[in-house]
Design a protein that fits this description.
This protein is α+β, with helices and mostly antiparallel strands. The chain is 16% helix and 29% strand. The strands form 8 sheets. The chain has a 5-stranded antiparallel beta sheet, with no helix packed on it. A 4-stranded antiparallel beta sheet has the order 16-15-18-19, with no helix packed on it. The longest helix is centred in the last third of the chain and has 39 residues. 28% of the residues are buried.
Length: 437
């Protein structure tokens, strides 16, 4: 009898707010071993886990072409109500404390100014809407809630819903990761990372987790100077600076910058560098990658007078293992060469995957001409193509642009074939009418 009474009391007690996870700025709770990521999208783009950012590695948890998840491009869900649009969810087997959430909005060539959204959580008993709205961050922005001063919620599920505002059709709803490097997009300069679900420490001093190590690179040198650059370390407590080490000795302590020039060096001499990140709690990251750099031989260029020590020759082929800048002094992160000026050559070959023969597959979702017209009226350019402003600001990737242009040509071919069928059908109908007169 007593045993049954105890069980009855326990069964009716409210869920105890016992922490199932500790404050940690380097952990995305959605990546814990008891987390399950799901969505109601079937046959769309990507898988639900592709949008997650991993602060412990300062990169996307899964690296794919676009790190996005949602319905197929241009897919129209009509006036889908809440719960019937696109839903993305993470569920844990034990409740989790959460005080920081980010989600990445859509790509700018698939605008969502009229898409409604809602973020809610389940505490084991009740669903509560944490936030909701229309447009805003989902239209190529970043959603951000909470922080170190936010009182944590306790949840076993976190749900994001995208749906129609009741007036406009829901077209191409999707979310994406932000702040990392996919195989097609370098978004590492974005400071707010997404998608993140975290339990941050309530005060910086309580965070025992050190920042992640920055990634150090050589961005230029002469016979007496070396330029270092790095991608910023991740720490939601706040990275406040860096320590630069030359040959294992402290060279400089810097603020929150991403480049530094070492001066007063000797020509034709090899130096070794590494870096550590500092945060507001006084923690230091582990050492970054170590790089060895040899200064140039002296004034001049090439093998006669300067820089000869960095070049090698094999079977009459000269090679250089570092980055190359022409007409400028730096190379942007993620690139091997940067040229400030014009390039003239006879031919450029670009290795390209995912060539758009998929347009001719039976299950390809070819937009109607009416949909294309509506998109052009709203955006001033074709779907899935960058706008003139985007190209002006960011340039374009030749391989990607050739693929997109061929995709449009192949789509146009399908429209022409369909129009020819319609014209042939109409001619037959006209001939029959003429004979019956």
């Amino acid at each position: 009898m007593m045993k049954k009474l105890v069980l009855l009391i326990l069964a009716n007690l409210p869920m105890l707010a016992i922490s199932q996870n500790s404050p940690d700025s380097n952990t995305n709770i959605a990546l814990l071993s008891d987390a399950t990521i799901t969505s109601n999208v079937s046959g769309g783009r990507g898988v639900p886990g592709e949008v997650l950012y991993d602060p412990s590695t300062n990169a996307y948890h899964i690296i794919t072409q676009f790190n996005e998840h949602g319905v197929a491009f241009a897919q129209n869900l009509g006036l889908a109500s809440r719960g019937n649009g696109m839903n993305w969810q993470v569920e844990w087997t034990s409740p989790k404390n959460i005080n920081y959430i980010t989600f990445g909005g859509t790509y700018s060539n698939q605008p969502q100014p009229n898409t409604s959204w809602a973020i809610s959580y389940f505490d084991g008993t009740t669903w509560t809407t944490l936030d909701s709205g229309t447009g805003g961050w989902i239209d190529s922005g970043i959603y951000q809630w909470g922080g170190t001063t936010q009182t944590p919620i306790l949840a076993t599920r976190l749900l994001l819903e995208l749906y129609s505002d009741g007036i406009h059709d829901l077209i191409s709803p999707h979310i994406r990761a932000r702040g990392g490097i996919s195989t097609s997009v370098n978004d590492s300069a974005t400071s707010t990372k997404a998608c993140l679900i975290q339990y941050l420490p309530s005060n910086p001093g309580s965070d025992t987790q050190s920042p992640t190590a920055p990634s150090l690179a050589n961005s230029g040198k002469t016979d007496t100077t070396i330029d270092l650059s790095w991608s910023g370390a991740t720490d939601n407590v706040g990275v406040t600076g860096y320590k630069v080490f030359k040959d294992n000795a402290l060279e400089a302590t810097l603020g929150n910058v991403t480049n530094y020039q070492v001066t007063g060096l000797s020509a034709s001499t090899t130096y070794q560098f590494k870096l550590r990140a500092l945060d507001a709690a006084g923690n230091e990251s582990v050492d970054s990658n170590s790089i060895s750099i040899t200064t140039d031989a002296g004034s001049g260029n090439g093998n006669n007078g300067g820089g000869g020590s960095v070049w090698s020759e094999n079977n009459a082929v000269a090679s250089y293992a570092g980055e190359v800048a022409i007409g400028r002094s730096t190379v942007p992160s993620g690139y091997q060469m940067a040229v400030e000026g014009k390039i003239r050559t006879r031919e450029v070959r670009v290795d390209q995957e995912n060539w758009p023969d998929y347009v001719f597959e039976e299950d390809y979702d070819l937009p109607t001409l009416k949909e294309i017209q509506r998109y052009i009226n709203e955006n001033g350019h074709l779907p899935n193509m960058p706008s003139a402003k985007e190209v002006e600001l960011q340039g374009m990737e030749l391989g990607k642009m050739d693929r997109l242009l061929l995709e449009k040509v192949e789509e146009l071919t399908l429209y022409v074939i369909e129009l020819k069928k319609q014209i042939k059908k109409q001619r037959k109908e006209i001939e029959i009418l003429s004979k019956n007169k």
